[in-house]
Each structure stands twice: as C-alpha cells, then as structure tokens.
C-alpha cells in the first residue's frame, strides 16, 4: 500500500511532463520565433549575471546567519525571509515604487546611466530579488552543518578567519552549497511576477511564454516550453543529486 501511494504521488508530480507529448504536437515543424530566441538569451545571460551577484552578496550573509547568535541574527533572518513570503506580484510593485523612474532611488541610478525598469539591469535586479533569499537560507543550512571547531583548528595552524573559511568550511559544505545554487538558479530562471512588473522588456522566457500563450495559443508555445525546461532543470537536478552522493 505504501509503495502504491508513493507511485501515485510520483506519478502526480510527473504528470505535467506528459503535456509535452499532448495535443498532437508535430515536433518536426516546431520553430522558435526571433522573440523566443531573444527571451532565451535574456533569461540565460541575465540569470547568470544574477547568480554572480547572489553568490557574492549572499555568501557573507549566509555565513553570518550560520555562525552568529543573538537578536540581530533573528532580525537579519526575518529580513531575508520577508521577500520569500511575499506574493511576487506585490514584491514587483513595491520594487517598481522604489526603483522606478519617479522614485528618488530610481532617479539616482538613472543619473549615473542605470535605468532599473524595463532594461537588462532591471531584469538582473528583479532576478536577484527573486532568488537571493532562497540561496541565503539554503546556504545557511549547509554552512550550519559544518562545525566551527574546524575553522578554529585551522586558525590555530596559522590561517586567517577568511582563509580558514575558504580552505576548510566551504569545501566541507560544498554539497549543500551546490544544492543552494541549484535552487537559486531554478528560482531565478522561473521568476515571473516580479519581472512582469519591473522588467517586462526585455522579456525573459517566463514572460515570453505568457505573451505567446495570449497571442498564439497553448499549442504554439511548446517549443519554448521545452527550451525553458532544458535550460532550467538539468543543472539543478545534477547539482541536487550530486549533493546527495556520499
């Protein structure tokens, strides 16, 4: 009975993939429009740029949450969790209110040539807001599983705190950090609500899929759906499975 229930749940989770073979789609004549290719490039390049920012900005905070104690840590963790708990459309509206051309912060960036609405920079900004909290929380869990005693031992052998973390803690936490990176990548490429408000143009793959469905119908978007899945799933799946290997 337990095996049957497990198979039922797994089948339920896999059912959407059957949609790729539904509706009598003739894959021999499947094509991608120029807008689709632009959306693919926007998502991959913007997502990669966002991941660099996420790692550089998120790792120090993940270390802080994993190692420090006290009320400030609880406050910092609450601040990280808030964007994860907010509806993405609401978060997009709030970001537009802060970084839009009418907002003081938006005007400040515009004065130095950085427009943060409907530009590639806005796409990266929205993607970072979408995926950074996920990375920080997952990375904090991975770093928290490494005992601080290893760092202390490395410091007694002459390593600086930074060198001890780079040489000892990060290698020991690499599997969990790989999983954190996988989750952040999937979250970054799959974000729709924030980007719809802040960076509708240039459109990434989720927004382009929504536009194509509205203009062309459901069956016409399957080629882009396939590319979207191939771009989003393999790396996270590989990193997640690798993180579980002994």
Q: Tell me the name of the CATH class.
A: Mainly Alpha
**Spatial separation of the terminal alpha carbons:** 30 Å
H-E string = HHHHHHHHHHHHH
Helix content estimate? over 70%
Task: Calculate Rg over CA atoms.
Answer: 21 Å
Strand content: under 5%
Any idea what the CATH architecture is? Orthogonal Bundle
CATH topology: MetI-like fold
Integer tally of domains: 1
- Overall body shape: globular
CATH homologous superfamily classification = MetI-like
Mean pLDDT: 87
- Low-confidence runs of at least 5 consecutive residues: none
Structural class: mainly alpha
Helical run tally: 13
What is the makeup of the main sheet? Answer: none
Q: Would you report the number of β strands?
A: 0
Describe what this molecule looks like in 3D.
- There is one protein chain.
- The protein is mostly helical and 246 residues long.
- It has a single domain, classed as MetI-like fold (Orthogonal Bundle), CATH 1.10.3720.
- Helices cover 75% and strands 0% of the residues.
- The chain is built from 13 helices and no strands.
- The longest helix has 34 residues.
Concise structural overview:
The chain is an all-alpha fold and 246 residues long. The protein is 75% helix and 0% strand.
Q: What's the helix and strand layout?
A:
Elements lengths: L1 H13 L19 H34 L3 H15 L2 H12 L4 H8 L8 H25 L3 H9 L4 H12 L1 H17 L2 H6 L6 H12 L5 H11 L1 H11 L2
Can you give keywords for this protein?
single chain; 246 residues; mainly alpha; MetI-like fold; 13 helices; 0% strand; globular
């Amino acid at each position: 009975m337990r095996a049957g229930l497990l198979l039922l749940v797994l089948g339920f989770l896999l059912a959407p993939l059957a949609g790729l073979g539904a509706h009598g789609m003739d894959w021999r004549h499947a094509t991608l429009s120029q807008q689709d290719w632009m959306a693919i490039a926007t998502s991959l390049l913007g997502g990669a740029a966002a991941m660099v920012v996420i790692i550089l900005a998120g790792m120090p905070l993940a270390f802080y949450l994993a190692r420090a104690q006290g009320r400030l840590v609880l406050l910092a963790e609450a601040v990280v969790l808030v964007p994860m708990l907010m509806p993405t459309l609401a978060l997009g509206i709030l970001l537009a209110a802060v970084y839009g051309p009418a907002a003081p912060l938006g005007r400040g960036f515009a004065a130095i040539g950085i427009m943060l609405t409907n530009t590639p920079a806005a796409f990266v900004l929205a993607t970072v807001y979408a995926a950074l909290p996920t990375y920080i929380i997952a990375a904090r869990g991975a770093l928290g599983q490494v005992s601080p005693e290893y760092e202390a031992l490395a410091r007694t052998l002459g390593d600086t705190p930074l060198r001890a973390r780079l040489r000892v803690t990060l290698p020991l936490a690499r599997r969990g950090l790989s999983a954190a990176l996988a989750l952040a990548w999937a979250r970054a490429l799959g974000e729709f609500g924030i980007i719809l408000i802040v960076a509708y143009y240039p459109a990434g793959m989720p927004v382009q899929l929504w536009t194509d469905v509205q203009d062309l119908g459901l069956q016409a978007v399957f080629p882009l759906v396939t590319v979207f899945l191939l771009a989003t799933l393999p790396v996270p799946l590989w990193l997640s499975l690798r993180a579980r290997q002994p």
